[in-house]
Amino acid sequence: MTDTDRSLHASLPAVPLGRTDMRITRVGFGAWAIGGGGWFFGWGAQDDRASIAAIRHALDRGINWIDTAAVYGLGHSEEVVARALRGVPRDARPYVFTKGGLVWDEQDRSAPPRRVGAPASLRREVEASLRRLEVDRIDLYQMHWPPEDGTPLEEYWQVLRDLKKEGKVRAVGLSNHDADQLRLAEMVGHVDTLQPPFSAIRRDAAERILPWCQAHDTGVIVYSPMQSGLLTGRFTAERAARLSADDWRSRVPDFMGDNLTRNLALAEALRPVAARHQTTVAAVAVAWTLAWPGVTGAIVGARAPEQIDDWIAAATLALTPADLDEMAAAIDRTGAGTGPARPPLG
After folding, report:
1. pTM of the model
2. What is the predicted pLDDT for the residue at 8?
């Protein structure tokens, strides 16, 4: 098995990730939630044993990459990923992607992390992630958000490129950056990847960001393709009302009032498409993001092995033009979210 075509059990197809030497499965394991609770963007308490079992099940199903971040659980997600991968043979290890640029206060772990792009801070973060992940090199290192400490984009992007030249990371990318910021970064050096939010509810990336990435050979790995659970087909208004105070979703408009009603109506409208393909609403929601030109893969979270089985079919599910038309009509009818409702024809 070659390093550039790492598909663990050859059960899922792999595609090129931009201009990098990596080929990734069309779905990857998202490790946000497994960071656990006790921090500002946590999902509440998690069972590390279940998280490790979920990661190993993802590998058994053929997924060949994991996306995490230093800030997830304030370092804990990276540690759980490392524990899950101990003992996995080198030629069977998945690619591990992580992110930096969010700095937390150990004295007040409930406070919102600060967005920091200072070169010395980023270098400290990379070293900390290398230690927590128990690796010598990170496969993809991404700037999590544009910083708010005054560091110019050209400066923090050059730091990431320098880390790549030094061999500490294999590829570098941006997350949550817009098309204008991508253009500015590209003037400094090629943007290997972008990680934007994208789902049938949050569709704005389709307007300018995805076309830019496609035109510049920038790989795109979208996050929250099921909109943090809303498009799984299992979420309900009652469950939204029961979200704990330490679950970040309890504070988000998508999970409240009319927005919640519209979002759940859209999830319900996906059931006929799922039935035709003999699959789940979750798989259809993820496959919808993969149907867009420019999207390389989707980051899909799971906190237990059975959750992976609910959406893994998205990796090979090809939605038809009729499916996409039906979903676009449902988006228009329900009024859920914003952005273009259908991939371009042709």
Report:
1. 0.94
2. 44
